[in-house]
Automatic annotation (TrEMBL):
Molecular functions (GO terms): acyltransferase activity, transferring groups other than amino-acyl groups
Swiss-Prot/TrEMBL keywords: Acyltransferase, Transferase
Protein name: Phosphinothricin acetyltransferase
Pfam families noted in UniProt: Acetyltransf_1 (PF00583)
Database matches in InterPro entries: Acyl_CoA_acyltransferase (IPR016181), GNAT_dom (IPR000182)
Span of domain N-acetyltransferase: 17-161
């Protein structure tokens, strides 16, 4: 299983969109309710590029099997060294180490950009994602109780953080 990690381009957006929409419609990994469109993704990608935030992809045998990115945590200037990240793997490829490779690369990119803190915002019931982050040294940053609502229930948001340097 050779996984190639590289920067995303606009040609990757339809595959990223599929992964994102799967998570929107079938999980609490993303607290959006409605599927995104290709123009939504094009704007998302343009915004990432304009801010110099990375979007990386994992490819296997020429197929996109995951993506990761980070970006603004909060808009106040004092947060400029902290980023919020996302890592998503195509549903048929989970549990194969692809997320590990993506997150390791994302952490390295953040260090190269002289960032100080990386934050993960995780549904508190997602034990798999919490354990995944702990493997990389992320620590508990607190829980916001009943701060999200999806699938007719209140959701708790778990913050996890990694000090990069």
């Amino acid at each position: 299983m050779d996984i190639i990690i590289k920067p995303a381009t606009t040609q990757h957006l339809p595959a990223i969109l599929e992964i994102m929409n799967y998570n929107i419609l079938n999980s609490t990994a993303i607290y959006d309710y409605s599927a995104k469109t290709l123009p939504d993704m094009e704007q998302w990608f343009a915004d990432k590029q304009a801010a110099n935030w990375p979007v990386i992809i994992a490819e296997q045998d020429g197929a996109l099997v995951g993506y990761a990115s980070y970006g603004t945590f909060r808009v106040k200037e004092g947060y400029k060294y902290t980023v919020e990240h996302s890592v998503y793997v195509e549903p048929g490829h989970t549990g194969k180490g692809i997320g590990n490779i993506l997150l390791a690369n994302l952490i390295e990119l953040a260090k190269q950009q002289n960032l100080h803190c990386m934050v993960g915002c995780i549904d508190a019931d997602n034990a798999g994602s919490i354990a995944f982050h702990k493997k990389f040294g992320f620590t508990d940053g607190g829980i916001l109780r009943q701060s999200g609502y999806k699938f007719d229930r209140w959701l708790d948001l778990q913050f996890m953080q990694l000090i990069l340097k």
